[in-house]
Automatic annotation (TrEMBL):
Biological role stated in the UniProt entry: Component of the A-type ATP synthase that produces ATP from ADP in the presence of a proton gradient across the membrane.
Similarity remark: Belongs to the V-ATPase 116 kDa subunit family.
GO CC annotations, alphabetized: proton-transporting V-type ATPase, V0 domain; vacuolar proton-transporting V-type ATPase complex
Its membrane topology: Multi-pass membrane protein
Protein's name according to its UniProt entry: A-type ATP synthase subunit I
Coiled coil: 89-123, 215-242
Protein's organism: Acidianus ambivalens
Biological-process GO terms, alphabetical: vacuolar acidification
Signal peptide: none
Spans traversing the lipid bilayer: 361-377, 389-407, 467-491, 503-521, 553-572, 616-638, 644-672
Length: 722
């Protein structure tokens, strides 16, 4: 799970008469990605297969559009008989063409409606800035005393809208466009002059109608076309549902034929032999040899070292239950064959950080239910990325529910802690869930340094201690990330990458771990020890000679020297790299650039990356106090002179609005910030993500081989060979 699977470059040499049988067995093997041969036996290719591959791909695109428009789950089904893949391609081509003909009229109608909709939406956007003007433009543009002009301009054209003796009114529509009204005494400004100087046309409507009327007409047309579009889609869906299984069977055959033709199109052929080459997991090569025994001669070799032309695909073997985390990694990039995969890292850190930043059982439950719906939506649409991301959100929301249980929070503080927690006054009652909550107060009290909410959040010392603990989590993550970068460099056998790129980072990011891990020398006084070391650092930074009066202060001085040496080492490393790879740069310029990148910038990043993990606490506090504020307002209404029933309704609405805001806004922000901590703070230390995913060819439907036909072919080949 940490390192990619070892891949072998496999070469298959077979009698060209057995090509179809070999292709069938490779499809069934399901662990082979075809490539162009490195040393081809000839320049001859199967051009017919290359041509037919394009046709099959067009059918696949059309089927995906049809199934997507009809709202049918896109998945292959059924079985097919293997044999001559060129002939099978023709058969599947005809079958797909006939099926597409059934929906041709509906698809054309949908296409026309969508084109009309796009046209009307463009008109709507054009008239939108002036939709409140109810006067006919024919009258507005023909006033006796004034000339009036309406324009829509870009932000870059704002400076040009300056005319003497004219009143100019502007209104921002979005980041790029503005609506402009220009009014001037009659005859001073001409339409042609305005359009030429500004570079924008004066707004006009058909027959000089009022923009208000045009807007409503276009909006009604859009509503009408949208209704017709939905009705047409319903017809398509109904028609497709009637033969859904048949469509999925054709779709499965198309996918299988596509992969078969992919193998054939990348092969090379001589007078007697065919050459197929590609990658397969090293541990699976023996199985491939067994499947092709007696039909092909197979050779294998391991990829060459990193940095050479050979770039194998990446296969990370993961249990199905945690494979979804891969989708988060792929947003950054696919791991290369030569580097450690961060997936195992994310399995633990991503959900945990999300849960620490979003600790509310009720809100997390809503996110959990939304993620389930999102997963089903992605499955229906056939979007694998949507399915994976929704599963990541499911896992993260489960952890958030756990932290919410520990924090004793359910849609904010009012339902558990109640008015007593909100007003911080023991004379008020507790919430209705206070005594039935499964996690007792004593457990929450013991976790106040990790989740400082409720009655514990009023103490500033707990907030300070939580900041220290948050930074320790970050220091640990950054150290591990830097260590993985060193391991990657060693695995790549790249001394320059190791000594000038990754080792300086490891040296620097060891310091925060020592500082915020120092408290573990006396776990009972963890925070006191860390604060003492931080005080020693401040003292020795601003004093000379250094204060070495205690072991802690001496360690602080050593750490200051450690950072200085690390920054100098990083500075020198950058100078060496600049001189090696940018030979035109002089020594003085290289030293200056090296200082900026390796000294100044590295020092800033060391500080900012470490402190950045305070956001774990900040977002958790923001979430709590947002709900706290709405709960406070709701309870003020409840305890006011408003009639009780009305007060309950109003208070409920206020608290519900606060929770909706927290779920919709903070849930998204926390998910994004969680990714940010991984992508920028952690991944940047060890992960490049410039690989390519292993994409094996396979049979998407069950393949039935014609044993009699294959036996006859073999007999013919044996006779020819004799």
């Amino acid at each position: 799970m940490i390192l990619p699977e070892k891949m072998s470059r496999v070469q298959i040499i077979a009698n060209k008469e057995l090509l179809d049988d070999v292709v069938t067995r490779i499809l069934k093997f399901q662990n082979f990605e075809p490539e162009e041969p490195e040393e081809p036996i000839s320049s001859e290719r199967f051009e017919e297969a290359r041509r037919k591959l394009g046709i099959i791909q067009e059918h696949l695109n059309k089927f995906q559009i049809i199934m997507d428009l009809a709202g049918v789950t896109i998945e292959p089904k059924g079985k097919m008989k293997a044999g001559n893949w060129n002939k099978i391609a023709d058969e599947v081509d005809n079958e797909a063409t006939q099926e597409e003909e059934k929906y041709k009229e509906l698809l054309e109608e949908i296409g026309k409606i969508k084109s009309e909709l796009d046209l009307y939406k463009a008109q709507l956007n054009e008239v939108l800035p002036f939709k409140d003007i109810t006067v006919n433009l024919s009258k507005l543009y023909s006033l006796k005393l004034f000339d009036v002009y309406l324009l829509t301009i870009l932000s870059s054209q704002l400076d040009k809208v300056k005319f003497d003796n004219a009143l100019v009114l502007t209104k921002r529509i979005n980041e790029k466009t503005y609506a402009v009204i220009i009014m001037a005494p009659k005859g001073i400004l001409q339409k042609d002059k305005i359009e030429k100087e500004i570079g924008a046309k004066v707004f006009e409507t058909p027959e000089g109608k009022a923009p208000y009327d045009v807007y409503n007409e276009v909006q009604n047309k859009i509503n009408e076309l949208t209704k017709i579009l939905e009705e047409t889609r319903a017809k398509l869906k109904e028609k497709l549902r009637a033969c859904e299984l048949h469509v999925k069977e054709i779709y499965g055959r198309l996918l299988t034929v596509r992969d078969a033709l992919t193998i054939i199109s990348r092969a090379r052929v001589s007078e007697f032999y065919v050459q197929i080459e590609g990658y397969a997991p090293t541990k699976m090569v023996k199985k491939l040899k067994d499947q092709l025994k007696g039909e092909a001669f197979i050779t294998e070799r391991l990829p060459r070292r990193y940095g050479e032309k050979d770039k194998p695909p990446t296969l990370i073997s993961l249990p199905k239950s945690i494979r979804v985390i891969e989708s988060v990694v792929e947003l950054y990039g696919t791991p290369s064959y030569w580097e450690i995969s961060p997936i195992i890292f994310l399995i633990f850190t991503f959900p945990i950080l999300f849960g620490l930043m979003f600790p509310d059982f009720g809100n997390a439950l809503v996110v959990f239910l939304f993620a389930i719906w999102f997963y089903k939506y992605g499955k229906r649409k056939g979007s694998e990325n949507t399915e994976k991301l929704s599963l990541v959100l499911i896992y993260s929301s489960i952890v958030a529910m756990i932290t919410g249980l520990l924090a004793r929070e359910f849609f904010g503080p009012v339902l558990v802690g109640g008015p007593r927690e909100v007003f911080n006054n023991d004379s008020y009652p507790v919430g209705p869930l206070y005594y039935v909550w499964p996690v007792p107060v004593s457990v929450s009290d013991s976790l106040k340094y990790l989740i400082p909410f409720g009655n514990y959040s009023i103490l500033s010392v707990e907030i300070e201690d939580t900041m220290i603990l948050s930074i320790f989590i970050g220091a640990l993550a950054l150290f591990v990330s830097s260590l993985l970068g060193v391991i990657n460099a060693i695995d790549k056998k790249d001394p320059e990458f190791l000594f000038y790129e990754k080792l300086p980072l490891l040296i620097l990011y060891t310091v925060p771990l020592i500082i915020f891990g120092y408290g573990f020398v006396d776990i009972s006084d963890y925070f006191g020890k860390v604060e003492c070391l931080l005080g020693g650092l401040l003292t020795n930074i601003f004093s000379f000679p250094p204060n070495l009066s205690t072991p802690t202060y001496a360690l602080a001085y050593i750490l200051i020297l450690w950072v200085e040496i690390g920054l100098i080492y990083n500075w020198i490393s950058k100078v060496i790299l600049i001189k090696r790879h940018e030979g035109h740069v002089g020594l003085g310029a290289a030293i200056g650039m090296g200082f900026i990148e390796g000294g100044f910038e590295a020092g800033i990043l060391l500080l900012s990356n470490t402190i950045s993990f305070i956001r774990i606490l900040v977002f958790a506090l923001a979430h709590y106090y947002l709900l706290y504020a709405f709960s406070y307002m709701g309870l003020l209404v409840l305890y006011s002179s408003v009639p009780y029933v009305a007060a309950v309704i109003i208070a409920g609405i206020i608290i519900a609005l606060g929770n909706l805001l927290a779920i919709a806004l903070e849930g998204l922000i926390v998910f994004i910030q969680d990714m940010r901590l991984h992508f920028y703070e952690m991944f940047s230390k060890f992960y490049e993500g410039q690989g390519r995913k292993f994409m094996p060819v396979m049979n998407y439907v069950e393949l039935e081989e014609g044993e009699k036909e294959i036996a006859k072919e073999r007999e013919v080949i044996e006779v020819k060979a004799a």
